[in-house]
Amino acid sequence: KDRLNEVLAWLHGSGTLELNGKYRKAAILDGIEFTKHGMQRLDFSIPFLMDPFWYKEDEYQTVTTSVTNDGNIDAVPLIKASGSGNASLTVNEIVIGLDFSIASPIVIDCLEKTEDFPKAVNIGFSYPTLKPGANSITTSGTITVQMKRKDRWIG
């Protein structure tokens, strides 16, 4: 009985579901029901909600003139830019102005549409997305660009 309570406590809340080198967010719903079959066997089902998107577990990668989304749907990357003075970064059609005199590095989360130093970032209402396949990157000024969460799949 104590072991069952430990398992039920473990199967509570939300977390990350990992499978074959990819991950997605998942949340277990209340109401795990189980049926006892003899002294040592239980059958149960676990109702949960999942984010529809899979992501590849990755680290920041330096990008220069292009970046590839290996997935099958638009990705919303984390961008880390460092440099000095004023610079700009263009991802496909989206231009981002960066003021490294305020902060460096600067992290831009295109999924959450946030920046860790908003006063150092000049971006409109659209944040960059990476379409499946190759995506263009152009820069001006003294800047190094790194990205992660650049691959996304649906299904």
Write structural notes for this entry.
It contains one helix and 15 strands. By secondary structure, it is mainly beta. Strands 7, 8, 9, 10, 11, 12, 13 and 14 form an eight-stranded antiparallel sheet that branches. The chain is elongated. It starts with a helix and ends with a strand.
List the helices and strands and how they pair.
Layout: H1 2-10, E1 13-19, E2 22-28, E3 33-37, E4 41-45, E5 48-50, E6 53-56, E7 61-63, E8 66-69, E9 78-91, E10 94-99, E11 106-109, E12 114-115, E13 121-122, E14 133-148, E15 152-154
Antiparallel strand pairs: 1-2, 2-5, 2-6, 3-4, 6-15, 7-14, 8-14, 9-10, 9-11, 9-14, 10-13, 11-12
Strand content: over 45%
The unreliable regions are none
Shape: elongated
Largest sheet: 8 strands, antiparallel
The share of residues in helices is under 10%
Average per-residue pLDDT, rounded, comes to: 92
SS-derived structural category:
mainly beta
CA-based gyration radius: 21 Å
User: Helix and strand string, N-terminal first?
Assistant: HEEEEEEEEEEEEEEE
Question: Characteristics of this structure?
Answer:
155 residues, mainly beta, eight-stranded antiparallel sheet, five-stranded antiparallel sheet, 1 helix, 6% helix, 55% strand
